[in-house]
# Entry
Amino acid sequence: MKRYVKIYIRLLHLNFSSLLAYRANFVNSLISSSVWGGFSIISILLLTSRSSSLFGWSRHDIIFLTCSYSIIIGIFHTFFSRNFEHFSRVVDLGELDTLLIKPIDSQFFISLRYINYASIIRIVVGFFLVGYLLKGEALSFVQLFGYGTMMFFGLITLYALWYIITSFTIWLSRLSNIVEFLFTITNVSRFPPQMYREFSWYVFLFLFPLTLIIATPTKFLINKIDFPDVLILIITASVLFIVSRFFWKLALRFYTSASS
Amino acid sequence: MRFIRKLLFCYNRLNTMSIIHVSHLTKHYTVYKKQPGFFGSVKSLVSRKSEIVKAVEDVSFTIDEGELVGFIGPNGAGKTTTLKCLSGLLYPTSGKVDVLDFTPFDRKTPFLKQIALVMGQKNQLWWDLPAMETFLLNKEIYDIPDARFNETVSDLATLLDAKDTLHVPVRKLSLGQRMKMELIASLIHTPKVMFLDEPTIGLDVVMQKKIREFLKGYNEKYKATILLTSHYMGDVEELCKRVIIINFGKILYDGLLSDLIKKHAPYKLISVVLREYVDPKKLESFGTVHTFTFPEWVIKVKQKDSNDIAARILKQLPVQDINIEDPDIEEVIRDVFTKKRS
Amino acid sequence: MSSRKNVHNMRYVRMFLLQFQEIMVQRARSFVWFLLSLLNPLLLLIFWSGVYQQKHAFLSDWSIATVTSYYLLLIIASSLLIVHIEETVAIIDIREGGLVKHLTRPFSYFWLMFINELPWRVFQGALGIFVFLLFSLLFKSFVQLSHDPATLIVSFLIIILAYMISFIFKMILGLSAFWFTDFWGLQQLVEVVILSFAGFLMPLEFYPKLIEQIAYALPFSYIIYYPIIAIQGKLLLPQLFQVMGIQLMWIIVFAVIYKYLWRKGIEKFVGVGQ
# Structure
């Protein structure tokens, strides 16, 4: 709806003004993002330093995977992460009441209120590295379109997973550090899905959605995409998103019956 | 058949004249208890005792458009819970709530666009930015056209005497200034119904007066229905013609404040400053002595006799100054609590 | 005189127990913290088991069993030996001024924080040991520890010294809030440095030579890496004593830095009136 677009544009403004008003915070975030971005790339380089191929992916492809991770996680951290970090305070400090009183979808507002512009650096670095690795090789339109679309669905999947797990803090408000847990478990997506499948089917099934979010888009870049991959990601994203909405409505029902 | 339909129609019309209609509202919570100490904590790993708190018990009342009603009670009486049920934040255990012909709990957009809930310490202003930025965000959320927005901000800022702090970052404002900004942010959509939970808590005397004046002015100008909770008598005295007294989740009194005084404390206080010393025994003949510390003397007399007795005092005693006062509302209300409990 | 000291010591014991109580209250939270130190080593284990499927040995004396033991011990090491006191010091005490109430008390701030942190580490470490024991029962062949009593005793001492280095270092990091407004940025930077050079990613021997040398020169390898390989029995007795020597050196260096920064910091704190 047009109203939501206007609200979001206003939020983009507010977050940017906030950034200018509190520059120390921005510098902190910039250091954080750069440092973690660098680490996620270098750690993969070190881990794969003695192998030319692993889990059916060449080292070159695994590095592409890591660059995609940088881009996609960069987007996620820019638009979503801060909101998840803020989530426990929303519940604990009664901000949720202030939110529910407003004529706006609470999931929308909680998920998108804060924007961390500093994480854009990870997106930029990721893109540069991808460009460098392609060594001037041009990508076809299908590849680019596929990459963009799969990136979108990957983000939806990751968002839905985070939202479902974070919603638990409405019941268990002490678990505010569950966000830290989510940051850590998202690392699962940095590795090829085959790695989990080779290790154990149970582990693979358990971590299934996470293994797709970076790998499937990257497959477009390295031209190893299969149509089933695309379909599976789209279905996973849609199902998880619907579940996240349903679960949130459930959490709100609990909150509005039990809060004092 | 036509007669019944007419009856229903009249009944409906009666209901729609009232903006807020609460009928047998009940709200119970389950609270978990843990035993103190180290072993209590270990025990709580396995089992927890639960207890039901009856926050609101069979509460019913009706409020018409434009009324300014005070909800009084001590802490834990059920005021905030009732307010939350009225604004849709809590799901009632049983009973019916109607506000502006909506069921608050459905939290429909047209309903939310017409109400406001202001709770003392909770804030919605962005800390690092001027309050105006938050107003602009709310403008988009409530879908307010530019012209109306500018007009409302200007009006509210004038009423609150806050025009110069609109563009100052919120973290640089004093508590009082921040409260003003919070109020404007909550009222930017000129709601028809306002719920205020302890609006003057934590504020200094000057600020309290300012806020009360503002609420009175707002109520008159916008014909908004205001329901406020407070345990400050000042709020009640200055703002509310009608009060609802609540304790332990039950309504103890619902009616005009003046009637409350007439019914429960039909007396007046005459305070006198004497020019010369008078034997206390002589003073007792006029009425019940409330306090006597020479030269000040306060007696309690029946409301209808107050003028006559005052005239007699002026004639018979060496009086320097005399004053007839209403009883302290706080005392009156405290009496209501203690009477109802016994 | 001695009875006063007894009362004094009893207070420390009581504080220790009080923290444990707090852990029980926050048991769900504590468990989530533990999960964090569990996840990354497990993830890397999955990685290495895949790598080892393809080749027979990555490095000559690191079999899949040795690598598995390494990461399992890493779970214990990261929950037991990585201290998280810097946030309390920097934010609650310095930034928000909670330090004031500690200055008027007859306890040393350093030891107070030490007593406050220890129960959390013990609790998390115990969970780590539990996971380790569980794994050893289920997969006996994959667990490799030293059986030599002398090695184990000296390794135990190495673990204690490792904890001290970790604690003093994090206290210093917390004190940086006296001068830095950018504490979070610095803290994240330090966290990544520790992750890179303490042996969290992989055994330091697997690093390219240059990076390996840098890691040995920094104190972080003495908090995580050396205790682990000591317990694994990869070091001979003289080498173990060498490790202890270097650990003691780092403890002394950090203690001196801490004392100096504490004095300077308090001067600034009290002088400015925060």
In short: Chain A touches chain C through 38 residues (CB under 8 Å).
